[in-house]
Amino acid sequence: MYGTPVDTEGKPSALSPFLSDQNAERVALALCRMRGAALKVGQMLSIQDESLVPPPVLAALDIVRQGADVMPRKQLNSVLDAELGPDWSSKLRSFDYEPLAAASIGQVHRAVLKDGSDVVMKIQYPGVADSIESDIENVRLLLTYTNLIPKGLFLDRAMKVAKQELARECDYVLEASNQKRYKELLSDSDGYYVPKVIEQLSSKKVLTSEFVPGGPIDKVAQLSQETRNYVGCKLLELTIKELFVFRFMQTDPNWSNFLYDDATRKFNLIDFGAARDFPKRFVDDYLRMVVACANKDRAGVLEMSRRLGFLTGEEPEVMLDAHVQAAFIVGVPFAKPGGHDFRANNITHSVSNLGATMLKHRLTPPPDEVYSLHRKLSGAFLACIKIGAVVPCREMLFQVYEQYNFSDDYSDVTASTA
């Protein structure tokens, strides 16, 4: 999949004989039918940079990102009857049986309340929560038997974290609580809006919220440079604020979760199933490490990497060199004052060139917190690359850093694996 796309004579590469447009599309469509955890994995893979994923896979996985097969009407009604009672429709003026979107664990429908308010109802697929264990295990077996995942990625730890995340995402009561918490946290922040939860039409498997307008942030690439810069700044501001101010982050970087409304210049934020807290001591040291990356401080990167659990202290020098180089590359957007042009300085390809060394010599999996955190951070960077934003990243980071209240305890810290 990641080999040279053509040989010296311009012919298709023989490194991956199974990687045809048709086969890639078959995989994507199969994931759509499987729903649940398998589709979630497909969606996570689809949020990638073109330089890392072959075009046939990128195009096929875009099918997955756009949605799953929809529930039959009878099945949909049975879920609504069980969750909201057989009289649920009496609370509505209208309900659109054609889904607005079909996602990994549920599908979304437009509806209108008795008072005329437009709402969206997210309705969970039957059995999804019960199938998490088997779905993730099937994905793990597939990746293991096909040798697509090298040993240095510590697949078992990644699968364990995926099971925990998906279990939380299947609890719409928890998601409703996350959504209300986000609304409160962002109440004083300009440019962001979180829709309110409609309590009387929500349950563990149904979540109803007010409808909000806007298009996915990747569509902003078609707008003016000034707008793209504004969107990139607001996206990075939100990401920095979530981690270093709130210590509470929505970690799913799916572009459809960030709806930009150009008429109001607001981000309408949706889908909080993947939101999670981060421990204060972890955030303290992670901020120190980001600043060390930005300042090309090798000693600081290595110290914080050991404290956070990225390194054991027993790694060979070749691994430490690759780790530090990768850290410095990731820190490039924060390295210099002024606007960072994400499209002109695509960092993902540079990091991938160091991947083989790190995978070969890595002695420990990363701390559990970073699986979701790095997915969100890479998603934010990739969105800025996609729309071609120019963002004053260093100024934004150090504005937070200079006001940050570090804990007094500077003892040895290991990130929680809970």
Automatic annotation (TrEMBL):
Keywords: ATP-binding, Nucleotide-binding, Transferase. Residues 64-304 form the ABC1 atypical kinase-like domain. One of its GO terms (molecular function) is transferase activity. InterPro entries: ABC1_dom, ADCK3_dom, Atypical_kinase_ADCK, Kinase-like_dom_sf. It comes from the Eukaryota. Transmembrane segments: none annotated. It holds the Pfam family ABC1. Belongs to the protein kinase superfamily. ADCK protein kinase family. PANTHER family: COENZYME Q8, PTHR43851. This is ABC1 atypical kinase-like domain-containing protein. It comes from Urochloa decumbens.
